[in-house]
TrEMBL record:
Name of the molecule in the record: Xanthine dehydrogenase/oxidase
Domain of life where this protein originates: Eukaryota
Annotated binding of Mo-molybdopterin, by residue: Q706, F737, R827, A975
Similarity annotation: Belongs to the xanthine dehydrogenase family.
Coiled-coil regions listed in the entry: none
SMART domains for this protein: Ald_Xan_dh_C, CO_deh_flav_C
Subcellular location: Peroxisome
Species this chain originates from: Lates calcarifer (Barramundi)
Sites where the protein binds FAD: V224, V225, V226, G227, N228, T229, E230, V231, F304, D321, L365, K384
Amino acid sequence: MFSVGLTGTKLGCAEGGCGACTVMLSRFQTHTQQLLHYAVNACLAPLCSLHLVAVTTVEGIGSVARKLHPVQERIAKAHGSQCGFCTPGIVMSMYALLRNNPTPKMADMEEAFQGNLCRCTGYRPILEGYKTFTVVRQIYKHTVKTHSCQNTHSHCIFFFLQDGGYFAPFDPTQEVIFPPELMSLSKGQRSRSLCFRGDRATWLQPDTLEEILRLKWKHPDARVVVGNTEVGIEVKFKNMVYPVILAPSFIPELNSVTHTEDGVVFGAACTLSHMGAVLRQAVETLPPHQTEVFLAVLEQLRWFAGQQIRNVAVSPSPISDLNPVFMAAGCKLTLMDKDGSRVVQMDDSFFTGYRRTVLRPQEILVSIEIPYSQKVETFVSAFKQSPRREDDISIVTAAMSVTFTPGSNVVEDLRLSYGGMAATTVLAKRTANRLRGRCWGEELLQEACSTLAEEMTLDPSVPGGMVTYRRTLTLSLFYKFYLTVLQKLRQQMFLIKPKGSYSVISPFLLQAVPKGRSQDDVLGRPMMHLSAMKQATGEAVYCDDVPLYENELYLSLITSSKAHARIISVDTSAAERLPGVVCDSVSFRLMTCPSSLQVTCVGHIIGAVVADTQLHAQRAAKAVKIQYEELQPVVTIQEAIAAQSFYQPIRTIQKGDPEAGFKQADHVLEGEMHIGGQEHFYLETNATLAVPRGEDGEMELFVSTQSASKTQSLVAKALGVPANRVVVRVKRMGGGFGGKESRTTVLSTVVAVAANKYRPVRCMLDRDEDMLITGGRHPFYGKYKVGFLNSGKVMALDVSYYSNAGNSMDLSLSVSIFTTETHTTWRTFVAKPISVSIFLQVRRLNLYMEGDSTPYNQILDQFTLDRCWDECLSRSEYQQRRAAIDLYNRQNRWTKRGLAIVPTKFGISFTAAGALVHIYTDGSVLLTHGGTEMGQGLHTKMVQIASRVLGIPYSKIHISETSTNTVPNTSPTAASASSDLNGAAVQNACEILMKRLEPYKNKNPKGSWEDWVSISLSANGFYKTPDLGYDFDSNSGRVFNYFSYGVACSEVEIDCLTGAHKNLSTTIVMDVGHSLNPAIDIGQVEGAFMQGLGLFTLEELHYSPRGVLLTRGPGSYKIPAFGDIPTTLTVSLLRDAPNDKAIFASKAVGEPPLFLASSVFFAIKDAISAARAESGIKGPFRLDSPASAERIRNACTDRFTKLCPPAEPGSFTPWSVQV
């Protein structure tokens, strides 16, 4: 696809976990004589498997030049594309859904997006745009409605999206047809046997059962592949090599579905999507007592991976989440080899070890029979608990089946099956045996829990960790099953409240545009992101989309596998012998490795390999053998404190006399808290293309970076040339979030050195490489002591913050007080305050006021936090919610709700920016500025500003890219200040040009813009933030230019038995001054909130005690998904709050709203407090961030947790440590 210029399909993870590479496959099924359309992850789909298959990519359904498909248009116009890297995949997921169902329900759409991730938008605008395709579209209309807001004489604007008039109509009859040639071939081909031979593997695709049995007998070690969802991962990330692969997708017997007297028999090649469809149909048509097992399977399928995986994956897998259901139901499996067949039952003897079963090497699985539940007295349930509800690997999964003696509550048979409690799926046979013949009641429950606690044990060092939580889950899930069955026995329908639709109505309140303003003046209007259409069609160009240069080479990094060690030797001989490798490219050392050859983190760059292709370079890099002398690493903050491993300076801010304040206080509270780090998880990983220009040491680089000038400077230094020989170009980034502010230079300098030595060189890191090398956001450990009066007024606060800065300072000094030096990867910018949850009135009592002074002695002026607070209280109906939650908590024992309202104050402080504006004689304007576009809409806002100052339609203005040869010495695009800085520079340049044009306008006042600009017009603009400077020693100066303020109120519901939580409602009021673009600013608020939601409730970076990062991709590291957004999300921009310190009275937005997601964290803590009170536990308790399901469950102390005490610290080596 790349070679023909079709680069719309993006690679975000290479493991089927992000959905960026989603495409639609279409296949004619000869056995049904029907077309099948389905979405798949292109990164896992082998090319060999696409014989007779039509592949539709995002380019195939529409383009900007030709015509956009309604799916592309609606996500763009709904402001659902920011950085755009995930957009093609989301577009194709929706397109595949519409090809199968032109009028889907909301539930269908939600299911279709389970395999897609977005880091920028917060998901809400994507869903709002695509709701217009569903059968529920009553709320949409793209009209501007003036709405009188509560308690104010001001006005706000409601924007709603609708298909009426604003969007192009959707006509499902006009879709691209299945290629007639493929149809003819599919119908006419007698044999589908195929053989593809590669340099390391042979792909055999038999088309009869006899043929595959013969091949398996001949190649007993061959892997059987249908969806490639396991083998693809093993080959890519575990360096596995399978010389022979058997693909049975076209064998009729393995794709058949047969209904028998005992159940439904599925061929082993039936996909999970097909299985789900068949079982749903059976549930609708069969008597309820026969479908208990089917419902349990469907419950697991509901949360099994994403739609793209379910469309190709099959059920037989040694590590499948379905195995507990199959085991509890006693499913029968038919195995066969060339000599015959046998039937085995899936029981505790079926699995012989991790990923091993009773199948003999020459056997294949032919089918699996899922039985009917035969008796009215049989009840079956399935459970799955994972860090994230959607598309996640389970922590513990369980299935339970009980049959009672007819007419009684006496247990006749009981099967309890668990996954995640051993190397294989296990049956709790000892517990089941004890409970048979017992009455289903409280005594049985107590016996079950005590026996399960004894039977379901785990080694404290077990892979995956969370030992106490996993053991507790075995009891909690049984208790859920117990309650379910108990209610059914009482002939009461047991209903779980349905999962709320994603943001069914999510109003967002914008600011009014002054009356009389020209329609050409787009400033302050919700203008669409300038690149949204191109991003939705796949035509937007990212760094790795730049066409290949002739004889271009690819670079792959060689990194350390040890956290702290000396390099003894490096053997490159095996790598140099591999095909495609440039022989002398393996041996050079990089500036990041000290002369002593000591590595200081896992992922420390040691060297690089250059080869003709990415695959060859990566294979060669893995072939380099390095011997180490290991040294003792410092991994955690506590280890760094103990070793006194601190970066200097250690900074202290003191204001007033804290000791006197503590003496005046009525109460003193002391405690500790830890906030985990966070991976930025931009969808586009770090990428660089370096092109030597052949004379005077010139080098041109295409880089995905927030800091073009810093990249230019460091590359020039590495090459030993002046900066004027190096040009860095940035078209756009697929996300940045601060993660590409400085660390991109580690890759770009390496690639530049290689290109200088050879010829054009390219490198785009794989997701696991990127996470390993680049670190992330800082973990923080805080110790606090607070003194307060009976009224709640804080009199004194003593806080010590320790941040884990990793093995290099990087940007850590800008965000930390104590910066600990550890042997983990360095970290970059983010603001993550530590807060203490206190009651509403106490928060209000201690809130800043106009004229107050901060701890760093900056006076607060133009203060709006009190207004945000009061408006948020009103909009969220806080008092009514509080009363309703208290009532709910009194009425429910095992689910609790919590509520919290949290303010934020974020300082804006960055230095300078430049701009260059050309006006051409045809009236068109070329605008360049020092900021980079990473999805935040910076280019769009700059065009709006230029349009306002020049007084021309925005369509006449174009931004091509950011480059160091147009605007030099720029600040990084960071700290949320880029609109302020670059906007002022653009304004300056445009005002210079307008002043030059004044004589021509005066001479021809009735002339047009084109008449006035018939001369050469070009101007540089510059802006520097005035009067900034701060001295830590004297605690004086002006740290920030101004502050952004906001308040959020969130309501959650927790499951006290599993630790899962639902985000029910969030109301945000944000002060962005006079918004330059309300739609973009709303998107920034929502995106930052959702990223904060991940930081405070979901995302965890797990490190081994030896400093190895264990979470290196979306399979193990979970960012929020579509299903994590609050059921009701309301965002409003504060009105009538001009800011005279920034461009056109606006304020920065981006990072400031991130901390508002802590309202969810503290709402969870509020709910936990209610659960603890129910168990008779009162008083303060520690809850570290993120508030994961594990931490929530362990904090909800009850009789089940007491049966599973944790192992004594120091008595074992944990799987992971808190860094």
